[in-house]
Amino acid sequence: MTTPLLPRRPLVFASMLVVAAVLGAAAFGPLLAPHDPLAINQNAVNQGSSAEFWLGTDEFGRDLLSRLLVGIRPTVLVAAISTFIAATAGTALGIIGAYSRPIISFFVMRAVDIMLSFPAILLALLAVGFWQSGVTSLSVVIGVIFIPQFARVAQSATLQVIRQEFVEAEHAMGARYLRVVLKAILPNILPPLVVQATLTIAAAILLESGLSFLGLGIVPPEPSWGQMIGIARGYLSQNPMYVAWPSLCLALTVLAINILGDALQDHLDPRLREE
């Protein structure tokens, strides 16, 4: 009997609502925004919350609520695309590292170890410094950075699966390498990979926000949460809520995704299920 994700777990349900709201804002943010997020209003610079501007305005008089609603889209796109890149390439490398000739496995996993030895933010800074900033370049860079994590998870899970009798049965029937991978190995290593994907999405959001915070991410005037936090540092004394709102949104989003990832792990891992 599996552990229910929602009953008796209100925190998980609240996290699902937060993630749903973020996805809704990413999809329909421009339609939900009460003002033009790029419109400059010199008569409403650094204002606090009001009836017209619910969350206040920035240094150019732009509506913060509108910029928050629109600014999540590039972050979600980068997180989703980079996670797909990392999951696809990392899973392939992990399976090769566990289910191929020893010499090939050795070189593949040592390359993964080398990538893991460098801090993610350092690799990202080195990479984006040579590329034009934008969603595409950020997605590729962040995706490559998180490949080793998926490779390690996939390798560990594959090593456990290839010892099972159904894999040996495939070999006994003369199944080819690709068939064994697609029919026997991949379906049985998906649960840990799904959990890793949720954790990677949260990490990718933080990394993209960090790069945008440093001015190496999304190019202004297009907003993103990390970029807004970075710019708002210079206006803390004039409008402290300017930095508070995007920081709060970012923290809640990452926290909600991590909580869902933990709940998903509890649900998919038979060792953590409640009888």
TrEMBL record:
Compartment(s) where it occurs, according to its Swiss-Prot or TrEMBL record: Cell membrane
UniProt cross-references to InterPro entries, sorted A to Z: BP-dependent_transpt_permease, MetI-like, MetI-like_sf
GO biological process: one example: transmembrane transport
Residues annotated as transmembrane: 12-33, 76-99, 111-131, 137-154, 193-219, 243-264
Family recorded in the similarity comment: Belongs to the binding-protein-dependent transport system permease family.
Protein's UniProt keywords contain Cell wall biogenesis/degradation: no
Membrane-protein topology: Multi-pass membrane protein
Keywords: Cell membrane, Membrane, Transmembrane, Transmembrane helix, Transport
Ranges of residues in domain ABC transmembrane type-1: 72-261
Name this protein carries in UniProt: Peptide/nickel transport system permease protein
Keyword Transport in record: yes
SUPFAM superfamilies: MetI-like
GO cellular component term, pick one: plasma membrane
